[in-house]
Amino acid sequence: MKRIALDLQYLPCLEYFTVLRGVDEVFLFPGDRYERQSYFNRTSILLANKVQTLSVPIQGRRPRIKLTEVRIDSEQKWESNHLRGIQSGYGKAPFFEYFFPYFEEALSRQETQLWTLNLELLTICLRLLRWPVKLTLVENERLLEDVIDLRGRIVPSGSYLDRPFYQEEPYGQNFGPNFVPNLSILDLLFCLGGSADDLLFKSQKKHEQ
User: Fold this and answer.
1) Strands 51-55 and 42-46, how do they pair?
2) Residues of 25-61 as b/e, b for ≥16 C-beta within 10 angstroms?
3) Spatial CA neighbour of 103 closest among 152, 43, 22
């Protein structure tokens, strides 16, 4: 059995899912502290002429608060902006009509706690990938010896090229002749559907993490 500890992120990138692939159980830590410039509230999608960053606005930006205390700034109409961006980028993708309703429902619910929203979105992604990964919330810092702690490893600073998880494996995207690697899992799901698992297998760097 393979078990890891991992950060919870917003509609995570492919690198994140190459780490998750083949894992039996993932430990998530709601008591960990919020770090600015992290993937906790942002992801990237592909539009017709650019890569677009989708950011969930948060209240206060107080330093070092618990992840479960991070509140979404609901006064900003971010949900409709994100949904419009996703529709603009992937409305004509082969599997958009099958998968989009799951994300539309979650993002339209006006959740106030970012942790809860991220957890729901990750659960949806795992379901669509048909991965039987158990998500376990941990309230303390102690981990069993067989758990690989990968928190703080997948971050915007630095490049995936310098990390031991993800390697670029091109697939057919919606726009342009040039493949854009390591976008949100949305890009892969909408473009490849049920073949996403095979692509993620090929995208895993084949050495120990």
Assistant:
1) antiparallel
2) ebbbbbebebeeebbbbbbbbbeeeeebebebbbeee
3) 43
Tokens of 179: 């493949």
Each residue's pLDDT tens digit, 92-139: 999 999 999 999 999 999 899 999 999 999 999 999 999 999 999 998
Task: Give me the residue spans of the domains in the chain.
Answer: 3-203
> The tokens 């809860």 sit on which residue?
116
Instruction: Classify residue 34 by its DSSP letter.
Output: P
Which residues does 125 contact at the CB level (< 8 Å), separation at least 6? 11, 12, 17, 185, 189
Spatial strand order of the sheet with 147-149 comes to 134-137, 25-28, 3-5, 147-149
